[in-house]
Amino acid sequence: MQEIGHWVNGKLVAGTSGRFADVFNPHTGDVQAKIALATQAELDQAVADAAKAQVAWGATNPQKRGRVMMALVGLINRDMDKLAEVLSREHGKTIPDAKGDIQRGLEVIEYCIGAPQLLKGEFTDSAGPGIDMYSMRQPLGVVAGITPFNFPAMIPLWKMGPALACGNAMILKPSERAPGVPLMLAALCKEAGLPDGVLQVINGDKESVDAILDNETVQAVGFVGSTPIAHYIYSRGTANGKRVQCFGGAKNHMIIMPDADLDQAADALVGAGFGAAGERCMAISVAVPVGEETADKLIEKLVPRIEKLKVGPYTGGADVDYGPVVTAAAKENILRLVETGVEQGATLVVDGRNFSLQGYENGFYVGPHLFDHVTPDMDIYKKEIFGPVLSTVRAQSYEEALKLAMDHEYGNGTAIFTRDGDTARDFAARVNVGMIGINVPIPVPLAYHTFGGWKKSSFGDLNQHGPDAFRFYTRTKTITSRWPSGIKEGASLNFKMMD
Question: Per its UniProt record, what PANTHER family does this chain match (predicted)?
Answer without folding.
Answer: MALONATE-SEMIALDEHYDE DEHYDROGENASE (PTHR43866)
